[in-house]
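Quick illustration for those who missed Monday's session on complexes.
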Amino acid sequence: AREIRLAARPKGLPTPEDFELAEVPVPRPGPGELLVRNVLMSVDPYMRGRMNDVKSYVEPFRLGEPLDGGAIGEVVESDAEGFAPGDKVLHGLGWREYAVLDPRHAVKVDPDAAPLGAYLGVLGMTGLTAYAGLLEVAAFKEGEVVFVSGAAGAVGQVAGQVAKLRGAKRVIGSAGSDDKVAFLTGELGFDAAFNYKSGKVADLLAEAAPDGIDVYFDNVGGDHLEAAIASFNDFGRAALCGAISVYNSTSAPTAPRNLGLAVGKRLTLRGFLVRDHGHLRERFQREVGRWVAEGSLRYRETVTSGGLDKAPEAFIGMLRGENLGKALVEL
Ligand code: NDP
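Prediction with NDP bound:
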């Protein structure tokens, strides 16, 4: 069996040399445990943060040890009640072909109810992040103008559509290519979108939001947050979900420089972690699950196939913006 280990702590954008593919024996499950063979795994921006040796809200990855993260495995052996060989389970031990699980850390998923990728994306962690960030953290209300950055990614594609479906007056998205912009305004029904590489974000946003914005769903930080602060109407709210523009940077961020405006505009800028919003999970799965089933909420996935050894390039590609929607790896 194979697993991917952290070989070196990346400087800037990770390179393939920061990862090591290692051959290990298939692990043996103990009493009460499960052995699963992973079939699908997630690559996520937060994993970049865990590659640095800094204390954060999750422990850093250790050098020479396997990475981990969201995955779907098929049960191969089970000594746990309620789990049988062939069952598919959602768990946190990706980046390896086989994993031994404590059944308390495995959730059975139904492949007939939704494609497996949905449990890692639109109906899973990234979907819940979008739902909680928009509705609970930013306290979005019908009739408001919403701006979503990283809008063609896993979280962003759901955040913008939930805003539309919940009655936003106008939804604006930003992304890093013209194709992604066309996807946002075409397939996903955003009212406006711009390619942030085509000009100054503040100018592009001001043009797309002539009447200002009320809610900002921030996946990007930096210039995007500065632009949102400039475009905010009074009492605007930002859900600070992530700041991917700085994850690979080796120098201090230069924006936002206008945080002082938060006072006069009486803004709320609130950071959040999806793990604190588990109480929304059922409501989220019911509401978004219905929208997905009836086709009113669409989503994309970018699935890299070819096995575990392709995971590092899928991860690096995601950081470079090569994914549309949720980035996944098929094992
Ligand atoms: P995505 O699917 O959005 O993939 C990452 C995307 O980031 C890329 O496709 C790329 O798209 C964009 N990107 C890369 N570099 C830059 C840059 N310099 N400036 C602007 N955009 C860039 O990932 P997720 O949807 O999984 O995550 C989105 C955000 O949400 C991240 O910041 C992540 O950390 C955060 N997050 C936070 C959680 C929480 O609990 N707070 C939970 C889950 C995610 P493009 O082509 O548009 O540049």
